[in-house]
Specification:
This protein is an alpha+beta fold. The chain contains 11 helices and 13 strands. Bound molecules: the ligand Nc1nc2c(c(=O)[nH]1)N[C@H]1C(S)=C(S)[C@@H](COP(=O)(O)O)O[C@H]1N2 and molybdenum atom.
Length: 324
């Protein structure tokens, strides 16, 4: 059953026509232009709740957050429309449009995150205590799903290392595990045993501390839409997208390598590391190329999703075919 569902991934891709993805490109570009102009006026307004209306406005809550010029993929960003309408968030269903349809019911404010395990300052943290406005920066990252489609997304977030350093992992902490909300009242996907809920993911501590690892709270200058993992999701751009766990409610510091959802579901198909690697095919499809959403021709997939110069040293001496 599990295998069937996963094969359905590939087929569902054809549901999204190039037309629907291109539809709003012009509108988006105009919108972003307006946002950039409006930022000095609107960007520093009072904080507080961002309604759906506000998120749709030209300048979102995070307009004016400084761009980090070191981390700007040169590729053109994917349409906002596509990035927020074509999602994987299985708690809301396995179809690509299920998250956008259902995730609005998830309450993301107030939000708190449990910090547990081998850490000096464990406890339950309110969102604003974990992520401060002054932490935030914009980074444009490539985003490569294990299903062989990709996007380019301007995220707003805080380096994961900044948050972890404040929490103070102890010498025993070698890994970090993250856990997603699992609320059957708002997540219809939890009724199906596609994965063992709650969704969990993990990184080695040095991967988590790597400057590329980001805790995202927004995209395109706006608050993260629920379907993209509001209010707080991981972004690890050199790994397949399933590592970038959404709507995080717990961060756990551990001595041993933690369980991770897709690895537990199909260990021969989804490794713990899940580094983007065009040379290691998924057992049921090639990873040598990808379909960039909004483009017609496939692109070659790059080792570590194009971030090899920054992250390859993390894996020195490892056999990346075994540790896939
Ligand atoms: N909790 C949770 N996190 C998740 C997923 C999920 O189903 N549940 N899907 C993953 C997968 S497979 C991908 S490709 C990305 C998709 O992120 P996006 O919808 O913002 O593009 O989220 C990842 N994080
Ligand atoms: Mo994915």
């Amino acid at each position: 059953m599990l295998i069937r569902r996963q094969e359905a991934w590939m087929e569902r891709e054809s549901d999204v026509t190039p037309e629907s993805l291109y539809r709003n490109r012009r509108e988006l570009i105009r919108g972003l232009g307006a946002a950039a102009l409006a930022a000095p006026l609107l960007g520093c307004g009072p904080g507080g709740e961002t309604t759906e209306k506000e998120a749709d406005a030209p300048a979102g809550r995070y307009a004016g957050v400084p761009a980090n010029s070191r981390y700007r993929a040169e590729d053109a960003p994917t349409d906002y429309e596509a990035a927020t309408a074509y999602n994987n968030f299985y708690e809301f269903g396995t179809g690509k449009s299920d998250p956008a349809r259902h995730a609005g019911a998830m309450v993301t404010d107030p939000w708190s995150v449990r910090v547990e395990g081998a850490v000096e300052r464990p406890g339950t943290y309110a969102f604003d205590d974990l992520v401060r406005r002054s932490d935030l920066e914009e980074r444009i990252y490539r985003h490569r799903c294990v299903e062989a489609w990709s996007m380019v997304i301007p995220w707003i977030g805080v380096p994961l290392a900044t948050v972890i350093a404040r929490l103070g992992p102890t010498a025993d902490a070698k890994f970090v595990q993250f856990e997603t909300l699992a609320d059957p009242a708002v997540m219809p996907g939890l009724s199906y045993p596609v994965l063992d809920w709650p969704y969990v993911e993990g990184l080695r501590l040095d991967e988590a501390m790597h400057p590329l690892s980001l805790l995202a709270v927004g995209l395109y200058g706006r608050v993260l839409p629920n379907q993209n993992g509001a209010p707080l999701r991981l972004v690890v751009p050199w790994k397949y997208g399933f590592k970038s766990i959404k709507s995080i409610v717990a961060i756990r510091f551990l001595e041993r390598q933690p369980a991770t959802s897709w690895n537990r579901a199909a260990p021969h198909e989804y490794g713990f590391y899940a580094n983007v690697n065009p040379e290691v095919p998924h057992p049921r499809w090639s990873q040598a190329s990808e379909r960039r959403i909004g483009e017609f021709r496939r692109r070659k997939t790059l080792p570590f999703n194009g971030y090899a110069d920054l992250v390859a040293p993390l894996y020195a001496g490892m056999d990346l075919r075994r540790n896939f």
